[in-house]
Design brief:
single chain, Transferase(Phosphotransferase), domain 1, 17 strands, binds S-adenosylmethionine, five-stranded antiparallel beta sheet
């Protein structure tokens, strides 16, 4: 059909997607990787479609389309994914190159990278910024692209999916998916958080990053698999209170299902200690102790300070404690004594030894016991004097 070498002749995947485009296209449409223009044409023929932007990375493809397709509703641009795209769309269509790369010379029409899913991965990591809140993505891919991987990228970018169709052709299955922004993403975008990306999974929460007022933000959302109840509200409550004592990352806002705080760009305490000099490490440890003493004085127990490897981030030589989900009032908070325990055993104590920072274990245990019975400032100072 197409006469240009670099133009993808419509195949089964194209026809399958075209069927759904005819059904679902509306409003403003983006046809990514337009190739022969088959999807753009199908969309433009619908009355419900206002206009279509058809993009392709290959200049030859765009030249071919401009020459052969004359439809006032369609505009063609050469763009590597969203590089040259500026607006948001109601429907974004993509029949990506999805085969694992076999030749040294890359075939952009069919090959999606070494593993086959790289172009899809990049597309999905950017698509939210170009999709209206109630917009949809129509995506096709093959079983040769690893369905689990594609679904993982979809979920990590806070999208929900629905399989519209699956067809078996020769030695592969072709899947057509409809993707939508999930509720959490819509809520975050309504709060003006953009560029939301999955970051890490904890026992109780899922962590995402995003941009808020030109700064990087961390967003903690409830892990649907966790049975823990009310953790988000609890953490937000304590962060708000402790921020006034300069403790914890700065809380930006929160809701029932999520909270957002300023992202701390730094290293976990053990990684920091491994790379830093003796004096810098001592300063950081004393600063942590100081913050923990404030918590003790306020009768607040943060919990988990006997293994805080993932709970203290050092940024610009200042330690910031994170994860206040289990924080609570207590007549006998154990923050300082637990940290003493951490320093005298466990991973950090080995690193301290290797840096020739000696902490007298027996003395520290003795002083921690005295402090436990009488948590006064003078007893606290005796502990920090050991560092
Ligand atoms: C499998 S063809 C699909 C063509 C047509 N949409 C269809 O359904 O038949 C994939 C198209 O994506 C284009 N493409 C590959 N990588 C791209 C990228 N990074 N940005 C934009 N287009 C890309 C290729 O040039 C090719 O035209």
């Amino acid at each position: 059909m197409a006469s240009c070498k670099s133009v993808y002749d419509p195949q089964e995947d194209s026809n399958m997607l075209e069927k759904h485009v005819r059904r679902l296209a509306r409003g403003k449409v983006l046809d990514m990787g337009t190739g022969s223009g088959i999807q753009a044409i199908a969309a433009a023929q619908k009355n419900e479609v206002e206009n279509v932007l058809a993009a392709d990375i290959q200049k030859g493809v765009i030249d071919y389309c401009k020459k052969n397709i004359r439809n006032p509703k369609i505009k063609f641009i050469q763009s590597d994914l969203f590089e040259k795209v500026k607006e948001k769309f109601d429907v974004i269509i993509f029949n990506p190159p999805y085969l694992p790369q076999e030749l040294k010379l890359k075939d952009l029409t069919a090959e999606g990278g070494k593993k086959g899913y790289e172009v899809i991965e990049k597309f999905l990591s950017q698509v939210n910024g170009f999709l209206q809140p109630d917009g949809v993505v129509l995506l096709v891919f093959s079983s040769l692209t690893k369905k689990e991987k594609v679904e993982e990228f979809i979920k990590n970018n806070l999208l929900d999916f629905e399989e519209l169709e699956k067809r078996h052709i020769f030695f592969e299955d072709i899947h057509a998916y409809l993707l939508k922004k999930n509720d959490l993403l819509k809520q975050l975008e309504a709060k003006r958080i953009s560029n939301v990306k999955y970051f890490a999974k904890g026992h109780r929460g899922l962590l995402f990053t995003g941009s808020y007022k030109h700064k990087k933000a961390a967003i903690k959302a409830k892990n649907p698999k966790s049975a823990a109840f009310g953790r988000i509200e609890n953490e937000a409550k304590w962060l708000r209170r402790l921020n006034s004592h300069n403790i914890g990352p700065k809380l930006l806002f929160f809701d029932k299902n999520f909270l957002a705080y300023e992202f701390i760009e730094g290293e976990f305490i053990a990684d920091y200690a491994r790379k830093s000099g003796k004096n810098s490490i001592k300063k950081v440890i004393k600063n942590v102790f100081h913050q923990l003493f404030i918590l003790d004085s306020l009768n607040i127990d943060k919990e988990e300070m006997h293994h805080p490897l993932k709970h203290i981030i050092v940024a610009k030589s200042r330690p910031c404690m994170i994860d206040f989900e289990r924080c609570h009032y207590s007549p006998h908070p154990k923050n300082v004594t637990q940290f003493c325990q951490f320093l005298t055993s466990g991973k950090l104590s080995f690193i301290l030894k290797s840096k020739k920072i000696s902490v007298d274990r027996n003395k520290m245990i003795k002083l921690a016991k005295i402090y436990k019975n009488s948590p006064s400032k003078s007893n606290f100072k005796k502990i920090t004097a050991l560092i």
